[in-house]
Each structure stands twice: as structure tokens, then as C-alpha cells.
Design brief:
The chain has 431 residues and is mostly helical. It has 20 helices and no strands. Pathway: Glycolipid biosynthesis; glycosylphosphatidylinositol-anchor biosynthesis.
Length: 431
């Protein structure tokens, strides 16, 4: 706990110092990689002004977030402008603590499960098994990566609303194995209310309820009913505040129809600026399927590994959502150490890591060449953002395939011949 306290203290001090650099925070908040039409703080401020004049934060074309989040931040800003950055810092701290606790619970469960089924494991696999030092070191590493990830830091100091969505998802995963369906589904409902796409994570809560709870408390339908209950409560509160159903669901319409093609690091904006209008509806369905459909086959394949399913669904959502930003990737990147005992099975990890780092640097460079220097065009920026998206796909597929291969090897043996034996094959050279 001492290490965690030091990490949190350093993270808070770093953010407090960076928030004093007004020119830096102003520049970062305008970056298309950090702020999107749905998450931008400047658009939220415009929404405040419109709300004062019309009584409806969605009456203009500035703010496209949820009603309750805008109301919360509006009252916070009215109390004291200093409270707003403090709340964003608190979001990161609480999310880091939640991820730390989640990692500790998950690895403890995995270690207990491994020890209880040790007789069923294959011989000669001791070197690749989950060890006690993973339980001791990985949770702290998860919190460290989350708090000091540059993506998390720029999201915080730009005051992007993604910080709240990450907080809700971090609290959701922290409660996944606690047995509290009410708390788990509350935070999932809050995240779904904000950005819609996390609705598919309800299947993870149902699978965890079935796998990790005691025999008499394995009703997988319970999380589903709790989730629907919380969503209805949120919609009801929004309706009581706004008095209009159209206003409540306007941000969902914005997410699904993608009317704003402001450039970002996603794949929607460029495509829908180029295609003819009469093809738009068809391709909207095609693109949205990428973010929403994969949970069906993945849930079938990974039904015995709900945490792995949660990881890959979080990756898919952050990669294929209509208005992504770098802050969306912070949650699943911080969870990568959970699978550190399977990293030896990954393919070309160095190339994929360098690809992510390179494209992260290339995106601002290409933006400068396109918008500021006028020496490039939209193709340059889209190429960099497409490579950035591709690096995410490689990381998520590598991680999941490595975990599944590791799980197979501890049961069937490290080396298998064609006949299923674990004996080594010897190549003999014949004269």
C-alpha cells in the first residue's frame, strides 16, 4: 500500500503542476487526438451558455454529451471553477485505485483456481504458471501505468469527459468479482448512459456472476435486470430535468448517426467525408457493426474467461467507436500487465509496441503538416490514425491469443507433437 500511496501522490502532483501551465493545457485541449465533438471541454462550456439562454443544453450544435454529466459539471463550475480540475484529478485517482483492487482480486482468483486444479495441469509447465510475485507486483504496476500513461494525463489536463467514462468502467471492473450485482451494474449503466457502446459489457457481468459466485447465488439474469433498472432510473432523472425524450436520447443519436465529421483518430470521419450521401446509411450500419457485433462470437468463445472477454470488448469499443480519442485506450492499456505471464506467447511484441508509439507521434506531426503548414492533405492524417487503430488491433489480438495459448499449454503440455505427446522431436540427418 505504501507504493500505491507514493504513486498516487506523484500522479496528483504531476497533474496539479501541468494544470498550472495554461498555454500547454489550452493547446492540448484543442488536439483532435484528445478532444472529440462528444468529449470536448470547450463544447461543454458552450453548452453551459446555451443552457442558460434556452434551458436545454442540447438545443445548439455544440454539446453532444449526456444531460446528467453536463448538469453535474455546470453546478460544479458555478460553485467554484477550481473544483472542476480537482474532480478530474479525483477521477483518475479513484480509477487507478479501482484498477489496482480489481487486478489484485482477479490474480488472486486465478492463482487459487490454478492451485486447486494443479493435479489436472500438465507436467513440466511450472515455468509458465502464474506465480505469487505476479500477485504482489502486477496490481501496483496496473495503477502506475494508468496514472502515468501520457494518454491519461492529457485526458485529465484537457478536462475531457472521457475521464468520467473511464472512472465508471474502472469501478465496474472493480466490482465484477465482488458479487455485488447492484454496484457492478450501476457503474456499467452510468458508462452506457454516457457513451452507449459499453452496453455489451453486461454479458461479462452475467458470466462473472455465474463463474465466480457461490452455488446458490449464480443467477446470471440478476445483473441484466439490475442493469435495466439502473438505466431506467437514469433516463427518468434525465427526463425530469429536461422534460423531453428527444433531449435525453440526442447524444445516442449523435453517436450512432455520426453527423459531425471533425477529424479524430478514428476511422469514421474520413470515410463519411468521402462517400456519396446515398451510401451513408448502409455504411453507418457496416461501421457500427464493428463496435457492436463482435461481442456475440467472442462471448461464446470466451465464456469460460469473462475477464479476458471484458478486456477485448473494452479494446474493441475504444478502437471502433464513432468518436474515439487517446483517453479511450488508457483503461485497457493499463490492464495489459494482467497477462504478463503469457507475454512469451505474443507475436512480434516489439514491432507492435513501436508501431503504437510511432503512430502516436505521427498523428500530431501529420496534423501540423495538413492544417498548419499546408504541405499535406487529409490522407496523411488519416493514414497515421489508421495505423494507430491497426496497432490497437494487433495488441488486442496478440494478448488474447497469447492468453488462450498459455491456458491450452498448462492443460495439454508446453510442447505437443502431431500425435498429442509432449516428447521432443529429434531431427536426424541421413547420409
Amino acid at each position: 500500500m505504501t507504493n500505491l500511496f507514493v504513486i498516487i501522490s506523484c500522479g496528483v502532483l504531476l497533474r496539479t503542476w501541468l494544470l498550472q501551465l495554461k498555454d500547454l493545457t489550452k493547446w492540448i485541449s484543442k488536439r483532435p487526438e484528445v478532444s472529440t465533438p462528444q468529449t470536448s471541454w470547450s463544447r461543454l462550456v458552450e453548452g453551459f451558455v446555451i443552457s442558460k439562454q434556452t434551458g436545454n443544453v442540447h438545443s445548439g450544435d455544440s454539446y453532444h454529451g449526456s444531460t446528467l454529466l453536463s448538469a453535474f459539471l455546470f453546478h460544479l463550475q458555478a460553485l467554484s471553477p477550481l473544483l472542476v480540475p480537482a474532480v478530474f484529478i479525483a477521477c483518475d485517482v479513484i480509477a487507478a485505485i479501482s484498477l489496482h483492487n480489481f487486478a489484485k482480486k482477479f490474480l488472486q482468483k486465478e492463482l487459487d483456481d490454478q492451485n486447486s486444479h494443479k493435479s489436472k495441469l500438465s507436467k513440466g509447465v511450472d515455468s509458465i504458471l502464474l506465480k505469487l510475485h505476479h500477485l504482489e507486483n502486477v496490481p501496483t504496476l496496473v495503477a502506475l501505468i494508468y496514472l502515468f500513461n501520457p494518454f491519461t494525463i492529457v485526458t485529465c489536463i484537457s478536462q475531457s469527459s472521457v475521464a468520467f467514462n473511464n472512472l465508471f468502467l474502472a469501478l465496474y471492473v472493480a466490482h465484477l468479482m465482488s458479487g455485488s450485482s447492484i454496484a457492478t451494474t450501476l457503474f456499467l449503466a452510468l458508462s452506457t448512459y454516457e457513451t452507449f457502446y459499453p452496453v455489451q459489457l453486461i454479458i461479462v457481468a452475467m458470466l462473472c456472476q455465474h463463474k465466480y459466485q457461490k452455488e446458490g447465488n449464480r443467477n446470471a439474469a440478476k445483473p441484466l435486470f439490475c442493469f435495466i433498472f439502473w438505466l431506467l432510473i437514469l433516463f427518468l432523472v434525465s427526463y425530469l430535468r429536461e422534460g423531453s425524450l428527444e433531449s435525453i436520447f440526442s447524444h445516442y443519436k449523435f453517436i450512432l448517426t455520426v453527423p459531425d465529421q471533425t477529424p479524430n483518430i478514428g476511422i469514421f470521419w474520413y470515410f463519411f467525408t468521402e462517400i456519396f450521401n446515398h451510401f451513408q446509411t448502409f455504411f453507418l450500419f457496416v461501421f457500427q457493426i464493428n463496435a457492436l457485433f463482435f461481442f456475440v462470437p467472442l462471448s461464446i468463445k470466451l465464456r469460460s474467461h469473462p475477464i479476458c472477454l471484458m478486456f477485448i470488448l473494452t479494446c474493441i469499443i475504444s478502437t471502433f467507436k464513432s468518436y474515439p480519442c487517446v483517453g479511450d485506450a488508457t483503461l485497457w492499456i493499463s490492464m495489459l500487465p494482467l497477462w504478463s505471464h503469457t507475454f512469451k506467447y505474443q507475436r512480434q511484441p516489439l514491432i507492435v509496441t513501436v508501431m503504437l508509439l510511432t503512430t502516436t507521434i505521427l498523428c500530431p506531426v501529420m496534423w501540423h503538416m495538413w492544417i498548419v503548414a499546408h504541405s499535406a492533405n487529409a490522407n496523411f492524417y488519416f493514414a497515421a490514425s489508421l495505423a494507430y487503430t491497426t496497432s490497437h488491433i494487433f495488441i488486442m489480438t496478440n494478448t488474447v491469443m497469447a492468453y488462450l495459448k498459455w491456458h491450452y499449454h498448462i492443460r495439454k503440455g508446453v510442447r505437443l507433437n502431431l500425435d498429442g505427446s509432449t516428447e521432443k522431436a529429434v531431427l536426424r540427418l541421413m547420409n
